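User: I'll paste a sequence; please echo it back and then give the predicted structure.

Assistant: Echoing your sequence first, then the prediction.
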Amino acid sequence: MTVKRVAEFSNGLAFYEADQRTRRHLGGWQVLAPGDAGYLQGALANGRAAGLVLDAGRLPAYGKQGVFDLPINDTKSYGCCCW
């Protein structure tokens, strides 16, 4: 996966398995929908459990890009969040 930093923020990036239409989390024991309390925390936990988190220190500098080998399954749908 290629990631390019287009803003000067120093956030991390997480991908998490989610339903394609509803964006509900599909991993773990609790299913959360966007707007539910704890959605972002659940998305981050889902991403961490799947090895799909790029902490801010691993991301490229502003205006640069980096290539990362993440265990993305091309038969699944994912959401993305920054924190």
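The chain has one domain: 2-82. The chain has a mean pLDDT of 89.
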